[in-house]
Amino acid sequence: MEETVFALSSGQGRAGIAVIRVSGDRARLALETLSGRAVPPSRRASVRRLADPGNGEQLDEALVLWLPGPATVTGEDMAELHVHGSRAVVGGVLDALGTLEGLRLAEPGEFTRRAFANGRMDLTQVEGLADLIDAETAGQRRLALAQAQGALAARCSEWRNRLVRALALVEAEIDFSDEELPDGLDDQALSMVMGVAKEIREVVASGSRGELMRDGVQVAILGPPNVGKSSLLNRLAGRDAAIVSDISGTTRDIVEVTLDLGGVPVVLADTAGLRETDDPVEREGISRARARASASDIAVWVVDLAYPTPPVWPEELQAARRVVVGNKGDVGDTSFPCGLVVSATSGSGMEDLERFLADAAQDLAGGADGSTLVSRVRQREALADCLACLDRACEEAWGEAALAGEEIRLGLRALGRLVGRVDVDDILDVIFRDFCIGK
């Protein structure tokens, strides 16, 4: 018998209500022991007095729920205790549960891991739930919610069914070659495989958008020293995130600020001024600035319009979007060719810069409508593996049916890895380790 686990599933700290979950074969016993009564009717809230089973001291008056499996989030018997959210009440109830034989505090992500093990969720839904817990913008919420509700899993199931039908046709050609079979079975199979491959190719092509929505669009603020990069960052952030000084080379390390622009997370990076220098510390800062620029999705080159010089983009820069921003537009030469003219001091032109960043970020991340299916590298790579197998199957053109059939099987196996049906033991710990306790 697997151990029964319990944990606080709502947030830590003082609150009006806290939810404690118990999952496993002893959930009924735990609820009856603390309440001193039989469990209430299934899935019907009931007010119960909770007491310490050791000394009978009242712990709280709580709203309790009895949720018999397998129709629960974990697939096991569950009990929920909705107690008052003070540390004393929560701590007392958790301590009391811990004294019961066969019960222990859940590890981070254990409730979700049991849901996965019991077939209540697949791996893409697990990842979606993890992203939903961490979502900070509307776009991240929509993308994570779609995955948690099985959007990608549903597409995978559809693809799998079509590939299984195609494989059945190929196997029929192989196993019953001496029988009279309907004409065109191989053409039907090829058409099915090509159709699935086309749809997967479209999803893989948009995979980087989902990853940007999940991880944030990277923006590097570049330029020579003392052009106002740090002031620009502070103005965009609405706070003093970076040190501003008239002394050249003040910024040595990268200063990051994350913004929500139109529902898309945008990570701004203030970097060291790019110039030649003998200072080893500043050289290291410049090296980091160049490395960050090479990994950026949007590059902003800042020009001091009081002393304007043309931008010198780093050779390694691969950013999909670039813009030259003239700073100090309130006192400088506004005729200098720039994409945008702003003043970090007065704030003029900052709305235009924010709008540019928001539009570029939404374009790169596929908007904030949650329509992108793939949000992780693991998902994109599994689909890419499947696509490669299907492409090889199509290249066989059924000239060698056995080889084509084997490639379809390998493609189905790649889809299985994506949703967690095969070969996933080595990645489970990585996925679940970042979950909070109680989920």
From TrEMBL:
Binds 1 potassium ion per subunit. GO terms for biological process: tRNA methylation; tRNA wobble uridine modification. Residues 216-362 form the TrmE-type G domain. Keywords: Cytoplasm, GTP-binding, Hydrolase, Magnesium, Metal-binding, Nucleotide-binding, Potassium, tRNA processing. Its cofactor is K(+). GO terms for molecular function: GTP binding; GTPase activity; metal ion binding. It comes from the Bacteria. It is found in: Cytoplasm. K(+) binds at N226, S245, I247, T250. GTP binds at residues 226-231, 245-251, 270-273. Homodimer. Heterotetramer of two MnmE and two MnmG subunits. PANTHER family: TRNA MODIFICATION GTPASE GTPBP3, TRNA MODIFICATION GTPASE GTPBP3, MITOCHONDRIAL. NCBIfam families: mnmE_trmE_thdF, PRK05291.1-3, small_GTP. This is tRNA modification GTPase MnmE. It comes from Pyruvatibacter mobilis.
